[in-house]
Amino acid sequence: MDKIVIQAGAALRRLCALAVVGCTMSLLVLLGTAAAADTAAPAVPDFSNVEIVPWHVQGNVWLLAGEPSNVAVQVGDEGVLVVDTGIQPLAEKLLVQIKKLAGDKPIRFVIDTHMHPDHTGGNEVIRKGGFTILAGNVANDDIRGQQGATVLGNENIQLHMAEQGANGQSAVPQALWPTETHTEDLYNMYFNDEAVQLYHPHDAHTDGDTFVLFRRSDVIVTGDLFVTTSFPIIDVAHGGTINGEIAALNQLIDLTVPADKQENGTLLIPGHGRLCDQADLVEFRDMITIIRDRIQDLIDKGKTLPQIKAAKPTADYDGRFGVTTGVWTTDKFIESVYNTLKPTKPKAKASG
User: Fold this and answer.
1) Which of 50, 47, 42 is nearest to 26 (CA)?
2) pTM score, two decimals?
3) 2-285: which CATH architecture?
């Protein structure tokens, strides 16, 4: 038992260290070249010694630890369903570990929780490592049969990935896009003897977020709606808002049920960090709500963004979640909250 605990601790320490790298790489992409110009880009890490370790969560669901972001895998008689695919440099290692865990069971589905590259970088490799089962007299003509596993994502993920830059190229190579998109607030499927439900909260971390509930296993994969390693990233450029983030956290809380003494029960796999239960989620929601209310109060009093930063509305949480260097700092978090709460300027009346 002691050996298992030591191994678990070492793996979790590696996971936390890689989470910082992954968030930085992701944010350099999503915040654009302006952020990169203001912050020296981190040295590209050496991933050759990274070990991806499987941890059984409960039911059919496993956490693959070692990626900068968390990867979840559901394994059963019908095959394998993967939630998020980590970063591109570790995609081949991830595929090897999935196949080792699943044996001869095929990868059938991949679900993207959002568009950021530390969660979708392995899409092409993992997709090509599986296949899609098709039926009917048009099966041979269906392009999905040539693409490997089905990659599911909210429509907004694909729209953002397809946005063209000044060079005329899409923001993300097409090989990493979802192969099927959905627009519903709740998308239901049944796989490996349990209901799998994809919930789409609006304008939260981004405008294309999905969290995944495995109902029989009683596990929720949250994506970056919930993390344990930093203040939440509100990606304003891609539709994120603080009020949408809090609404999403409340929705997650409604779907979790604690076990005896408020421990365990429904387990949550966050986008970054350790396994959690409802109590951890409630604490995170309360923190974000308190900070939102403080900033809203300062806005209502007419304070400017520099004045709000000087007031330090996150001070009592900075020791746990605050960051002063890198791309996503505490100041950036405060700025994102401010930008989604500040009143919009009324349109000028037409003269005449």
Assistant:
1) 42
2) 0.86
3) 4-Layer Sandwich (3.60)
